[in-house]
Amino acid sequence: MKNYTVKQYQESDFDSWNTFVSQSKNATFLFNRHFINYHGDRFEDFSLMVFEDQKIVAVLPANRVGDCIYSHQGLSYGGLVYKEKLKLASVITIFRLVLSHLNKNNINKAFFKLLPSIYHQKPADEFSYALFLAEAQLTRRDALSVIDLSKPFRYSKIRLRCIQKGKNNNLIVKEEDDFEVFWNQILIPNLKARHHTKPVHSLEEIRLLKKRFDKNIRQFNVYFEDKIVAGTTIFESENVAHCQYISKFEENENFGSLDFLFDYLIQEVFASKRYFDFGNSNENNGKILNKGLSYWKESFGANCITQDFYEVATIHYSKLENVFK
């Protein structure tokens, strides 16, 4: 039996955490402490690290709210992070110890939003299987629209017409180093008017993250006669180009601006990526599908994958004690 121990992350672990994450098979730059810590004032961090003797074998980005932990509410996805060498039985054993550790620290429930499989460097569903064994309950399922760029895909006729419309309007796409024009003239007004909300990231926060992850966070704007009419913010990981924000100037709906933009991104900028992820088209915790938005993404050749959200009682660590033959 290997000697695993669980401890809570401390600032002195900053470098060792980041080194481990960079070598893991199921992590992206969002798990880097430079990303997690940018909004540290909003969350009570309760990230965990698992050691075999003095060697890190797994980490869990997490925050605490009362008697619950979440993985992590400030991130798009989470879960147990580990390297390729860690075997399935070890992941199960480690998850049992994590649940036991949480239970002993008066945390009754743990909530996990899983990293979609397209972001894995190699197959990494060991944690999903461990959740099943622990009788975790599926609480939400989002439908993501994804293009597998390594396989043939086809635009619909209406997308082709709209792309041509963008060309006829002499639209120009520019990659920008700053986010102010898109945030203040397009994104913030649209979110306020249509959804009575605001971006998850403030302008100051996205600028800070851009400085920390210059190659991973990219902004593309569309201009008509030198005036911005649309844009998207891309979070780029090793396998995936993910659309974090998509928005356009509503009065220019007939310009073909977004179609023109995404054709350029898919066919040129990110053509060498494995996947292009438009994100989900869901509301109400996955219970409602925005049919029009989903169709728009699918008409580029995207298909559906799912992202699952689970809840598990920490007392269920006992259910992982007798699962090996």
Labels describing this entry:
4-stranded antiparallel beta sheet; 9 helices; alpha+beta; single chain; 11-stranded mixed beta sheet; 325 residues
Commentary on this structure:
Helices cover 30% and strands 30% of the residues. The strands form 3 sheets. It has an 11-stranded mixed beta sheet with strand order 2-5-6-8-17-9-14-13-12-11-10. The radius of gyration is 21 Å and the shape is elongated. It has 9 helices and 17 strands. Helix 3 (88-104) crosses helix 4 (126-133) and helix 5 (157-168) packs across helix 8 (257-269). The mean pLDDT is 96. With 325 residues, the protein is of the alpha+beta class.
Helix amount: 25-40%
Helix-strand string: EHHEEEEEEHEHEHEHHEEEHEEEHE
Q: Give the distance, in angstroms, between the N- and C-terminal Cα atoms.
A: 14 Å
- Report on the biggest sheet: 11 strands, mixed
Question: Secondary-structure map with pairings?
Answer:
Layout: E1 4-8, H1 14-22, H2 33-36, E2 44-45, E3 48-52, E4 55-60, E5 63-65, E6 68-71, E7 81-82, H3 88-104, E8 109-113, H4 126-133, E9 137-148, H5 157-168, E10 172-176, H6 180-195, H7 203-212, E11 217-224, E12 227-236, E13 240-248, H8 257-269, E14 275-280, E15 282-283, E16 288-289, H9 291-298, E17 303-313
Parallel strand pairs: 6-8, 13-14
Antiparallel strand pairs: 1-3, 2-5, 3-4, 4-7, 5-6, 8-17, 9-14, 9-17, 10-11, 11-12, 12-13, 15-16
